[in-house]
Amino acid sequence: MSNTSNEEISEAFLKLAQNELKVELIDKEVEQFKIKKMESVYNERDTLIEKIPSFWKIVLSQHLDFANYIRASDFKYIDAIEKITVKYASDIEKIGSFSITFHFNKIEGDLEEQIVTKNFKLVKIVSEDEEKKDAESDEESAEPEETLISDVCSIQWPKEYNSINPDLIEDKKSSEGKKNYRQGMKSFFGWFRWTGLKPGKEFPHGDSLATLFSEDLYPYCVKYYTEAQRDFEDEQSDSENSSEEGIELSEDEAEDEEPAQKKARTE
Amino acid sequence: MSNTSNEEISEAFLKLAQNELKVELIDKEVEQFKIKKMESVYNERDTLIEKIPSFWKIVLSQHLDFANYIRASDFKYIDAIEKITVKYASDIEKIGSFSITFHFNKIEGDLEEQIVTKNFKLVKIVSEDEEKKDAESDEESAEPEETLISDVCSIQWPKEYNSINPDLIEDKKSSEGKKNYRQGMKSFFGWFRWTGLKPGKEFPHGDSLATLFSEDLYPYCVKYYTEAQRDFEDEQSDSENSSEEGIELSEDEAEDEEPAQKKARTE
C-alpha cells in the first residue's frame, strides 16, 4: 500500500519486537491480577469443599485424563486423598510457579495420614545442553523455553509398596532391584520425586500431571464434581424409570421394537 | 473425614454455587483487565504492522487452520486484505463481544477498495427452542449457553462473483439459482452475511472463523509472521547451500540416487 523505505521497515521490525515484549509483560500482569483476585475465592471454596464427603475422590475419578497418569494399584491411595489445594505464585517474576498440597487419610496398616506439599517452579531453559544452574539467570538469550522443574519431595510410601519403595530397595543394581525401582518411580508416590531434570529416569510426564492439577483439576474441581453427580443422577433416574412410571413405556417399546424378532422366532 | 450433617452439606452446596458465581465474575474481570491493558499496545502494533509489506497476506497464508474456512477461489481476495484489526468490548457485561475490521485493497476491474467492520456479540441462549429475543434477557435459567451471533454486514462483492452474489441472483428458486446462492454463502464474502441464527443456511462455522480472528490470528499475528519468515529463510538457505558449498553434496547425491534410473534408461 504505502511506499515504505527499507530503513523504515527495519525500524518497524525493531519496534515490533519491543511491542511483543510489552505483550508478554501484560500476559504476566493479567495472570498476576487473576491469581490475586482468585485467592480469597479459592480459600473460601477449599473450606466449603471440606464439608462435602468424598469430594476429591469423586473429582479425581470423574476426570478422564487423570487416570492416564495413574497405575491401577495406585487408585486406593488416590481415593485416600482427603484434600487438595494449589497455591499460585503471584510475584511477577515467579508467575507460572505453584505448589500443590495433598492431605492423605490414613489407611489402617498401610498408609500414614500425612500432608505433603510439592513445589513447581517455571524456569527458562535456553538450550538442552545447558546446565540447570544457568537456566534461570540467562534471560537474554534468543528463545529460551519455559520449563517446569521441581524438588524431590519427602513422602511416606504405603507399606504395600515396600518392595518398590526406592528408599527400601537394597540392591538397586540387580535386575530385580532395577525393575522394582522403575516400578516405584512410575507410581503416584514416584511422582513426588520428579524433578524434571532427569528425563527418562523419572515419573513420566511429571510436568503434565502437575499442570493437570494447577490448570484443570483444581480450578475446575466443582465442574467435575457436578458432572459426576449428574452422571450419577442420570443412572439413578434411568433405573427408577424402568422400575416405576417407566413400566408402561418400556412395555410400549417392547411392542414397537420386538415384533420383528418375535415373528422371526415363530416363523 | 469430619462428620458433617446433611444440613451442613446442603448449606455447603448452596455456598459453593455462590462461590462459582464469584469465580465467573472474576473471569470476566480478568478478561476486562487484559483488554484494557492490551488496547494501547495493540494500537501501537497496528501502526507498526502497516509499515511491513504484505504482513497480513503472509500471516493468513502461514496459518494452517485458516485455509480450511476459505475456498480456493477466495484466496486472491484474501491476498487483497491490507489490514485487519480486532476491537474487544471491555464493558463487564459485554465481555466476549468484539468487532473485526478488514481493509481490502482494490483489484482493478474486480474488487473495490473498502473498509468493512463485522460485529460479533456473545449472548446467552437458554434452550434451542427459545426465540432469539428472549436469549439475552433470560439470564436466570438453569444453564444458558454462550453463543456468538452477528448482524448481516454490508460488503461489496467482487465482480467475478456476480453469478454467486446473493444480491444479484434473480431467481433464487430455480435449481441453478439455489446452487449459486449456496456457493455464494459459502464464500468468504458470504461470511459477512453470517448471523449465527440460521444454522445450515449460512456460512459454515461462521462463529469459529470469527474467534479464529479474535483469539488467534489477531493476538498472535506477529508470531505467525515470524514463523513464515523463518520458514522462508530456511528455504533460502537450503537453496544457497545446494548452489554453493552444497554442490559437492548434491553431486554425491546424484551419484547415489540416479544410477538406477540411468541404467534403466540405457538398458
Automatic annotation (TrEMBL), chains A, B:
Q: Where is the composition biased (Acidic residues)?
A: 232-258
Where do the record's region annotations for Disordered lie? 229-267
Record-linked InterPro entries: NAP-like_sf, NAP_family
Q: Which GO terms describe its cellular component?
A: nucleus
Q: What domain of life is recorded for the organism?
A: Eukaryota
Gene Ontology BP annotations:
nucleosome assembly
- What family name appears in the similarity comment? Belongs to the nucleosome assembly protein (NAP) family.
Q: What's the protein here called?
A: Vps75 protein
**What species was this sequence derived from?**
Maudiozyma humilis (Sour dough yeast)
